[in-house]
Amino acid sequence: MSPHEIRDRSLDSLLFTDDVKEQVSSITVIDPNSRESWKILVIDDDRMIHQLTDAVLEEFTFRNKGLTIIHGYSGKEACELMAAHPDTAVVLLDVVMETDNAGFEVVKYIREVLHNHQVRIILRTGQPGTSSEREIVSEYEINDYRDKSDLTSAKLHSSLIISLRAFQEMKAIQTVAQSGNTIENILHERSTQMEHDKENIKSDFNRLTVNGNLEDDARTELLGLINKSSSIIYIKDLYANYIMVNNTFEEFFHVESKDVIGQRDDDFLPKPLAEQIMKSDMRVLRQSAPEQNEETIQYNDVCHVFYSLKFPLYDLMGHFCAICGVITEMTDDPEGGV
Asked: Rounded to the nearest 10 degrees, how much is the dihedral formed by the CA atoms of 250, 253, 257, 260?
């Protein structure tokens, strides 16, 4: 068995019985450089952690891409793997391995030697709360810090989605920066794209909606439009019940549209967040006028900064019958992204 192995999510589905425990990390990879999956690095000296991580992420997808998981079992292997795979999106990193601070040294190597500031690092430890860990988190650009016992399936999925979204944003910023554009240009482009989304949605909703009703074919056409956007998009009726949400909405809030349609925010979101979203939506409903805001929300223990554009929608007869929200995530770090 090689010292580190790669596992492609599309290859198989394993049950972790005693008979197959040693097979988990010896699966052959057809194309470890495939762009059709997100590359994830799992570093831990406990093989059971690797097996559990594989099991939890077996069916994981984000923006129509699965995972290719690369396994390593020491800090030394982590450094070798990161050098070999600079396009890794997320590292799930243990702290205590061959030494008590092996994970911290890996972070230093990634950030200071490889100068890789795009990869998202999620620190996982079974010994949380030491002062040295807090200092490292602050000093070496660790993006998330979790106790292993706290990483349930739902929380791991949420952390990974947030990290992949941030990685994608960092890649986009690098691409734009290499082309000579500035952060201000990126913000302008995003604002322009949101306005473009707004006009398309208003036009199609008006064309497809009769007396406030969307037929199935019309609903499918409109859903196809909003799913093309990378922004979070939703449509609500005049009672603030969800009519439609796009794929990005489902990914961010970790919900399925079938569980959202017909519901209000307080039916499936934490109360403070639900009240915050509904407050701005109700202003648009009362005033029948568009509203633009920069909003900061706390969700899944992470602070997010959004630029939101909310506006009324009218049917074919000119009746005000719904509102739409187009929301793009930004960063509160002016040097780290938008």
From this structure: -160
Distance of CA 322 to the CA centre of its chain: 27
Answer for the pair 204, 221: CB distance below 8 angstroms, yes or no: yes
Residue 54 has phi, psi (to 5 degrees) of -60, -45
From residue 83, give the alpha-carbon distance in Å to each of 76, 80, 135, 178: 11, 5, 25, 22
The total number of structural domains in the chain stands at: 2
pLDDT tens, residue by residue, 273-314: 899 889 889 999 888 889 888 777 777 666 677 888 999 999
Reported as half-sphere exposure (CB side, CA atoms, 13 A), residue 89 has a value of: 25
Residue linked to tokens 């093309």? 228
Q: pTM for this one?
A: 0.49
The per-residue pLDDT for 214 is 81
| 250-275 CB burial, b ≥16 within 10 A, e <16 | bbbbeeeeeebeeebbeeebeeeeee
Residue 235 confidence (pLDDT):
96
Determine the structural domain holding residue 288 and report its residue range: 183-330
CB burial of residue 280 (10 Å; 0-12, 13-18, 19+): middle
- Provide the CA 282 distance to its chain's centre, in angstroms: 27
Kindly report the CATH number assigned to the domain that includes residue 271: 3.30.450.20
The predicted structure's pLDDT at residue 165? 85
Structure tokens at 302: 């992470």
- Mention every residue, 6+ apart, whose C-beta is less than 8 A from residue 179: none
CA separation for the pair 173, 190 (Å, rounded):
12
